[in-house]
Amino acid sequence: MRTPAGAALLAALVLVGSPPAALAGAEEGKALYEKQCKVCHSLAGEAGKMAEKGGPLDGVGAKRDAAWLRQYIANPKSVMPDAKMPKLKMTEKELEDHVAYMSSLR
Ligand code: HEC
């Protein structure tokens, strides 16, 4: 890869190859999940170090709608007063990406 433009093109090609059903932001949300969320959760058999805390998120997109996910991820206690999941620092865009990714888990 000689130029940043080449890297961008490759990234675009990789994204084009992702499933068409994926919502906008789902790919970004997946990358964010690996960094911010995986430690407390498991998904598709891949468990984070403290996965027993948050448990599996398999199928959560079918169980919870986007509005619930948005509010819960933004501030867990606003939905579940006794929530143990912490309120994580994130931008509005990152929140949308998390919601897109979680919604895609069906
Ligand atoms: C410190 C541990 C921790 C981290 C980090 C964490 N979670 Fe959680 N999560 C939990 C726990 C514990 C629960 C169970 C409900 C509760 O007590 O809040 C939960 C529940 C959830 C649920 C609801 C699952 C269901 O079946 O209803 C979703 C969705 C979720 N987490 C997404 C995320 C996302 C997205 C991130 C990253 C932005 C994240 N979690 C980061 C601990 C964590």
Question: Quick gist of this model?
Answer:
By secondary structure, the protein is mainly α.
Offer a few descriptive terms.
single chain, 106 residues, mainly alpha, Cytochrome Bc1 Complex, Chain D, domain 2, 3-stranded mixed beta sheet, 7 helices, binds heme C
Question: What does this 3D model show about the protein?
Answer:
By secondary structure, the chain is mainly alpha-helical. The protein has a single domain, classed as Cytochrome Bc1 Complex, Chain D, domain 2 (Orthogonal Bundle). It contains seven helices and three strands; from the N terminus they run ααββαβαααα. A three-stranded mixed beta sheet has the order 2-1-3. The longest helix has 13 residues. The chain is globular, with a radius of gyration of 15 Å. The chain starts with a helix and ends with a helix. The mean pLDDT is 89. The site of heme C has 23 residues, from helix 2, helix 3, helix 4, helix 5 and helix 7.
Topology diagram in text:
Blueprint: H1 4-16, H2 26-36, E1 41-43, E2 46-47, H3 51-54, E3 55-56, H4 60-63, H5 66-74, H6 76-79, H7 92-104
Parallel strand pairs: 1-3
Antiparallel strand pairs: 1-2
Helix pairs in contact: 2-7, 5-7
Bound molecules: heme C (HEC).
Q: What is the name of the CATH topology?
A: Cytochrome Bc1 Complex, Chain D, domain 2
CATH homologous superfamily designation: Cytochrome c-like domain
Count up the domains.
1
Classify the secondary structure makeup into a structural class. Answer: mainly alpha
Query: What form results from the Cα inertia axes?
Result: globular
Helix content: 40-55%
